[in-house]
């Protein structure tokens, strides 16, 4: 399973797929991420074809478990070159990366 730590993610041209549940996404997510919950991936696979095909898609969840399953499935299906983000959004937050919330006026957090 291809895996990268948050500190190894590219600073330019990052393609990030967040596979957490809607409540987790709403509480706090990376500003440029695409949100498709893990359970919705098969039904929404066509959305991934719109992503740039000249670079890998980094897949993130809360800590890395769901994103590892998603990345394995995406790679096996040949949809995109997927790389799991080790430590997930918890590591993203710890590394000081930007977070935004869907709740107006609320401080973003990782659930």
TrEMBL record:
Known CDD domains for this protein? RHOD
The reply on keyword Transferase is yes
Keyword Transferase among record annotations: yes
Sorted keywords for this record are: Transferase
- Per its UniProt record, what SMART domains does this chain match? RHOD
Domain of life (superkingdom): Bacteria
Q: Which Gene3D superfamilies match?
A: Rhodanese-like domain (3.40.250.10)
**Signal sequence bounds:** none
A family per Pfam: Rhodanese
Q: Which residues form the Rhodanese domain?
A: 10-101
Q: Which GO terms describe its molecular function?
A: transferase activity
Name by which UniProt lists this protein: Rhodanese-related sulfurtransferase
């Amino acid at each position: 399973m291809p895996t990268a730590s948050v500190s190894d993610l590219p600073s330019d041209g990052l393609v990030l797929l967040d596979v957490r549940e809607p409540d987790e996404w709403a509480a706090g997510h990376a500003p440029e991420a695409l949100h498709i919950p893990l359970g919705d991936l098969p039904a929404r696979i066509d959305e991934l074809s719109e992503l740039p095909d000249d670079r890998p898609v980094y897949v993130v969840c809360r800590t890395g478990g769901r994103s590892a399953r998603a990345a394995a499935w995406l790679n096996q299906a040949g949809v995109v070159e997927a790389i799991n983000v080790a430590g997930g959004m918890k590591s993203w937050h710890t590394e000081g990366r930007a977070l935004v919330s869907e709740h107006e006026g609320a401080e973003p957090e990782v659930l």
